[in-house]
Amino acid sequence: MAASLARDTRMDNKNESLYQNALHALRQKRWPDLRFEPASLEHAFRQEYASWRLQTTFSAACVALLFLLGGLFFEWVWAIEVHPIPFWGRVIAVIGILLTVRHMARERRSSSVSSLILLNGIVCTLVVLAFAFLSQPPTKQVYYGTLFFVQVFLFIYLRLPLHLSAFCGAFMFLTASAVLLFDSMTGLERAMTGAMLFLGTVLSLAVCVRMEWRERSYFLKDHLAQRELERLRQTNRDLAEQLACDSLTELPNRIALEEILQALIERDLSADHLSRRAAETSEESSEEKGRAFLVPVVIEDFKDLNERYGHQAGDNLLRAVARTLLASLTNPGEIASRVSGGKFVMLWFCDDIRDAERRLARARGLLRSVRALRENQEREQNLQISLCIWTPASSIKGSAQEKASAYVDDALRRCHCKHFKIADIA
Fold it and tell me: Is pTM beyond 0.70 here?
């Protein structure tokens, strides 16, 4: 498990380094090549924004259909005659958009969508230019102005890949320039219209490049921020575990014990019995736990023993007792905790008081076999351990947190009258 954890940590660090290097490289890059290296990172970026791009494409298709069909409806209502070339071009554009929407609805993939969008953009451009070329002023200027908004809409809103945006922008501007050369407008009008289209192409592409750069930058920064957030959460979890764990014996400490007691109290357990058989949602859980009992275990005068024979001997004694108490736990949910110094408290779940007393006798037998206790008994004839079963008094009042703390204090206080000498049970 440790090897697996170390391997996962190395992989996470490698991935984080990959994103950091990509962010540094992105800051040095300029258009047109903003793609990530390696290809797996580029694929992850495209997958991240695939759903958003499909949604914007759907909405753009609806707007384009509304614009094209609205023109047909307007011409039909006002009985406006339209040249066959732009009319059938508009029909082809509508069919192309509908086929694109159908393809996206069935495939839900963005790999081929960009090419379809580019094709539809070219068709729409040719349709608008046909209307502009065959119309009379001032309708002609309106259609050329419409082409400007088609550029902005196509490049900024739909956000094609940059190489496709550059190709489409160049095609639209060159095609429009060729149409303007043969248009019936004056030279000044052609120059102003060409300047407007050129400005629209350049500005739209510039904004598109900037937005693409920011999207990629946000993608990398968001991933790094998520990694940092997860690292902080893991650190908090580790600190919480350390806070609730005794470093010497590796048992839960008093904080952890009181949290468990508080949870039991908050489940409406009575004060007379720390835990009656709780109403569980399943029969299995109700069979696993019965009444709860606190079992305080105190090494009497542990401080004096620690000072007399050294901290190492005291630490060995505490570890030995901790292992013995853990061995006495038999039911799910039971814990053994070190409260302070030579004081321990166990939480048992037993069927009744007789069952608890039988388990207490077994715990005494386990303590009898602890080698560290025997060694200290040889040096200290008065070594005593207090061990008893405790249930809460109904007089203890307060909140669940206050009761939990009071239960532990009262159990330890009443435990001192139940001591026995190691020599007596050896």
Answer: no
Tokens of 148: 């400007």
Quote the percentage of the chain above a pLDDT of 70.
80
Q: What is the CATH number of domain 254-425?
A: 3.30.70.270
Contact indicator for 328, 364 with CB cutoff of 8 Å: no
CA distance 186 to 198: 18
Q: What is the pLDDT of residue 285?
A: 42
List the alpha helices (DSSP H) in 244-310: 254-266, 283-288, 302-309
| Contact between 187 and 137 (Cβ < 8 Å) | no
Q: pLDDT, tens digit, for every residue of 382-402? A: 567 878 888 776 667 788 888
With residue 299 as reference, give the H or E element that holds it: strand 291-299
d(CA 151, CA 139) in angstroms, rounded, equals 19
Long-range contacts of 147-152 (CB under 8 A, 24+ apart): 147/172, 147/176, 147/197, 147/200, 148/196, 148/197, 148/200, 150/121, 150/124, 150/125, 151/197, 151/200, 151/201, 151/204, 152/200, 152/203, 152/204
Contact 100, 61 (CB under 8 A): yes
pLDDT of 283-335, one tens digit each?
Answer: 444 444 568 889 999 888 888 877 887 888 888 888 988 998 998 898 888 99
How many angstroms separate the CA atoms of 256 and 260, rounded?
Answer: 6
Q: How much helix, strand and coil, in percent to the nearest 5, is found in the chain?
A: 70, 10, 20
Q: Which residues pair with 350 in a beta bridge?
A: 291
3-class DSSP state for residue 352?
coil
Calpha distance 171→232 (Å, rounded): 51
With contact defined as beta carbons under 8 Å apart, do 104 and 113 qualify?
yes
Q: Report phi then psi at 421, rounded to 5.
A: -85, 145
Query: CATH 3.30.70.270 region(s) of the chain?
Result: 254-425
Tokens of 358: 């039988």
